[in-house]
Amino acid sequence: MAVPESYGTTYQAAEDRYENLEYRRTGNSGLDLPAFSLGLWQKFGTDYPADVQRDIVLHAFDLGITHFDNANRYGPPHRAAEKFFGTVLRKDLAHHRDELILSTKAGNPLGPSPYLKGGSRKSLLSSLDHSLRDLGTDYVDIFYSHRPDPSTPLEETVGALVSAVQSGKALYVGVSNYPAETAHQAAELLRAAGVPLLVHQPRYSIFDRRPETGGLIKLAAEDGFGLVVYSPLAQGLLTNKYLDGTIPAGARALNSTFLSADDIDDTYRERAGALDEIARERGQSLAQLALQWVLRQPQVTSALIGASSTWQLDHNVRALEFPPLTDEELALIDRHGIHGTGVRV
Ligand SMILES: NC(=O)c1ccc[n+]([C@@H]2O[C@H](COP(=O)([O-])OP(=O)(O)OC[C@H]3O[C@@H](n4cnc5c(N)ncnc54)[C@H](OP(=O)(O)O)[C@@H]3O)[C@@H](O)[C@H]2O)c1
């Protein structure tokens, strides 16, 4: 891709950006991903200052975060996050496209049109074309089916993912929010088509244990795909920001439809407070404990975090600087990390 004329902001990528972060192999593939990836789901729409968003993305890259996760829906409004990222890519990161892993997803509803939702070939492939236009790139690195669609034959959804790779518009494919059994069927179909399933993107945190209980972690090992786990901080509930009973200005619980003040109740505070104690005993923060906890699983390739400031990024990427969790600490975390706490399941 030729460097556009508009290239030329003052951004210079940090020279030491590959010196500190760990990179992990994704399943049986040849692709390494950073232990932390940055998602643009929240706070990357038109409702948040673009200069702050730009600082966060570029700071992430400076820290060695090479993987940026998008979806056609991210905003608000829908598609705004990809348009924003496209601007940063064009103006600041054009020279670094080869160093970036960009992902996008399709299949979650965008509107009332039957072609703007679901897992049909039409929905997935026209959305991918739209995302490529918004991102201003010829290809994405990972194209996901955002969620299973029982009303569409799995063969059709998988066939669209295969076409995305065969047409050169995606390098790898993934599925997200698929239960283990459906993920296994998709992996088999993809393998037969010569396009192995690179990665699954489930929600996983101390407060959401479904990848453990639903067999996904075991399946990832058996089928040879990686896990890029989203909301490892349970959208901020696994940080210390809500522990004192108040909600700080600007926090997600005040301004998102996906987390509300009602989710922050006494049961949540009691459990999160106990987890915070465990973290303090280890000399780390609750956020760092929560991230280290998901990354203890070898099948977890990357913890997919959100951030509303560069401080959060700096703080969170230090999570792997602490000693591994002991069996006693893991048992204690299990006692307070009750599935479903504060999060909608
Ligand atoms: N595949 C799917 O269906 C799906 C669904 C959801 C998300 N995702 C992906 O996963 C990404 C991450 O999800 P997420 O944003 O829910 O992840 P998360 O890491 O659990 O939550 C991130 C939020 O927690 C707060 N935070 C982060 N670090 C903090 C710290 N050290 N101290 C205090 N607060 C802190 C920030 O919110 P505030 O400061 O704004 O409060 C931040 O935006 C998304 O961007 C998206 O790419 C995928």
Question: How would you describe this protein?
Answer:
Keywords: NADP, Oxidoreductase. The protein is α/β, with parallel strands linked by helices. The chain has a single domain, classed as TIM Barrel. 37% of the residues lie in helices and 14% in strands. Strands 3-4-5-6-7-8-9-10 form an eight-stranded parallel β-barrel, surrounded by five helices. Strand 3, helix 1 and strand 4 form a beta-alpha-beta unit. The chain is globular and about 50 Å long. The structure holds NADP nicotinamide-adenine-dinucleotide phosphate. The site of NADP nicotinamide-adenine-dinucleotide phosphate (NAP) has 30 residues, from strand 10 and helix 11.
Helix vs. strand class: alpha/beta
Percent helix among the residues? 25-40%
| Count of discrete structural domains | 1
Looking at CATH, the homologous superfamily is NADP-dependent oxidoreductase domain
| Assembly state of the chains shown | single chain
Order of helices and strands: EEEHEHEHEHEHEHHEHHHEHH
Family: Belongs to the shaker potassium channel beta subunit family.
Keywords: NADP, Oxidoreductase
Organism: Streptomyces endophyticus
Protein name: Aldo/keto reductase
Write the layout of secondary structure elements.
Elements: E1 23-25, E2 32-34, E3 36-39, H1 50-62, E4 67-69, H2 80-91, E5 101-106, H3 121-135, E6 140-145, H4 154-166, E7 170-176, H5 180-192, E8 197-201, H6 210-213, H7 216-223, E9 226-230, H8 252-255, H9 266-281, H10 286-295, E10 300-305, H11 310-317, H12 327-336
Helix pairs in contact: 2-3, 3-4, 4-5, 9-12
The structure holds NADP nicotinamide-adenine-dinucleotide phosphate (NAP).
NADP nicotinamide-adenine-dinucleotide phosphate binds next to strand 10 and helix 11.
